[in-house]
Design a protein that fits this description.
The complex is a heterodimer of chains A (about 110) and B (about 120). With about 110 residues, chain A is mainly β. In chain A, about 0% of the residues lie in helices and about 55% in strands. Chain B is built from no helices and eleven strands. The chains are: A mainly beta (about 110), B mainly beta (about 120). The interface of A and B includes residues 33, 103 and 105 of A.
Chain lengths: ~110, ~120
């Protein structure tokens, strides 16, 4: 069974630009969560989608948004990039979110110059 | 609100020695607790979890953890360290499903170095 796939793995943007990251969950998993990982703040929850609906959202500004498609694939978008948005963005899928057993992708490393 | 504190951002042990990574949690309700491991340039992998029942839980790669409610702790141990255990370890807590929440709160991580 294929794991969680995230694209692109690495990308470089400049301040003010926007970026879209993609995540394909494990087949059969209907929940997709996104986390931001930085050296200073650690792992922080962004949002979670289940059956195309956002079920939970972390404490991030509105520049961070996401969506989920009918095939459970998810995208997250960050608009008006700031230097502080440089991070590893991790996607995780789960068949049943309430167990907390998340399956993570390898992440998309975003560098904002 | 849920939170996790991991004592020691860096831990070094000799190969074959005991591994002990500390985690204390704060939760207003009985928590679900987890340990995840992250190898360089990879995502996180679940090592073990505690939900209900037996307080000593065993995970992959010989790791285990014990839930101690009185100490609000969930420390991770392994009797004998291997070189392949070198990685970053994250403790996490979530609300139980009855609360309707479904996200994890992670600690800041502990980087484990194994000395040959």
């Amino acid at each position: 069974k294929a794991g969680v796939t995230q694209t692109p793995r690495y990308l470089i943007k400049t301040r003010g630009q926007q970026v879209t990251l993609s995540c394909s969950p494990i087949s059969g998993h209907r929940s997709v969560s996104w986390y931001q990982q930085t050296p200073g703040q650690g792992l922080q929850f962004l949002f979670e989608y289940f059956s195309e609906t956002q079920r939970n959202k972390g404490n991030f500004p509105g520049r961070f948004s996401g969506r989920q498609f009918s095939n459970s694939r998810s995208e997250m978008n960050v608009s008006t990039l700031e230097l502080g948005d440089s991070a590893l963005y991790l996607c995780a899928s789960s068949q049943d979110t309430y167990t907390g057993e998340l399956f993570f992708g390898e992440g998309s490393r975003l560098t904002v110059l | 609100a849920q939170s996790v504190t991991q004592l020691g951002s860096h831990v070094s042990v000799s190969e074959g020695a005991l591994v002990l990574l500390r985690c204390n949690y704060s939760s207003s309700v009985p928590p679900y607790l987890f340990w995840y491991v992250q190898y360089p340039n990879q995502g996180l992998q679940l090592l073990l979890k505690y939900t209900t029942g037996a307080t000593l839980v065993k995970g992959i790669n010989g790791f285990e953890a014990e839930f101690k409610k009185s100490e609000t702790s969930f420390h991770l141990t392994k009797p004998s360290a291997h070189m392949s255990d070198a990685a970053e370890y994250f403790c996490a807590v979530s609300d139980p499903p009855q609360t309707g929440a479904n996200n994890l709160f992670f600690g800041t991580g502990t980087r484990l170095t194994v000395i040959p």
